[in-house]
Amino acid sequence: MRIGALSVDPPLLLAPMAGITDRDFRLLIRRLGGCGLVSMEFISAVGLLKEKPSTLRMLHFVEEERPIAIQIYGSDPETMAEAASQVEAMGADVCDINMGCPANKVLKGCAGAALTGDPELARRIVREVRKRIRIPLTVKFRLGVRSDRLTYLELGRIFQDEGVNAITLHPRTAKQMFTGQADWSAIARLVETVSIPVIGNGDVKTPEDALRMFRETGCQGVMIGRAALLNPWIFRQTADLLAGRQPQEPTLEDRYRLMRQHFSWVLQREDAKTALHKLKTFVGWYTHGLPHGRRLRCQLSQLQSAEDIMASVDAFFTAQMEGA
């Protein structure tokens, strides 16, 4: 798949997720293989221009992560255009506009998925951004704000007309948040409506789901988000399926090494409070489905430091690998 001049191979993309797709997680996914494009956590255009420390801290990336997309959100065309210009100056390979986030704090600012309810404002934002940058431009969006006002086909045509290089559709409304079932048939209708690449997103939980999305919708790329938290190997496994190879399941030792590597990065980069929160969060995801994993997750509320969590993880995997 090509996004403008950029080749995305394999055509599998890591979705931007707030509080999740930081440098450590992106690098982890990149090293496991199979992901054609990683995305940062979405960035506030206002926060970027005001140089808020919390925003600037999220913008760090390393060469090994390339190609990388930086996603921005906001509701003012000029502010978004200036933020996109800075994204380009930082060396991002792709600038992505967020018109899909359903979080209330984003919607209240008339940004994110709220823009699917105002196609003309969405057009002005994209037009201004496109005039300011030369790197590939993408937009991630939803079906609309509510089921009685679906705007995604209109928006797809607008984005194409305004020079967007590829679009990602999460086929739920903003009101749905992440409930119900993603309507993959809408992705197929969008593919039929526009000539630019369409990336499908939503309810891809397994490598087989990704292949089914390609087959059922005709999309050129698949973006995976929450499933990568439970199975960071999903990109490599999907790439294997696409290439006709039998995907391999990670061993218990593989999972232990991954957690050890990820958590060592977190401990090096984060303050004690943030490290504690991240380790508790990721332990919950990484041990999902493991024998006796619930026992470890139940211990988390009692642990008061990142070091205590690391010790519990070590003890858990040592016992599992010894067959205890």
Automatic annotation (TrEMBL):
Record: active site: 101
Domain called DUS-like FMN-binding: residue spans: 13-317
RNA-binding in keyword set: yes
Domain of life from the UniProt record: Bacteria
SUPFAM superfamilies: FMN-linked oxidoreductases
Cofactor entry: FMN
A molecular-function term among this protein's GO annotations: tRNA binding
Free-text function comment from the UniProt entry: Catalyzes the synthesis of 5,6-dihydrouridine (D), a modified base found in the D-loop of most tRNAs, via the reduction of the C5-C6 double bond in target uridines.
Protein family membership: Belongs to the dus family.
Designated name of the protein: tRNA-dihydrouridine synthase
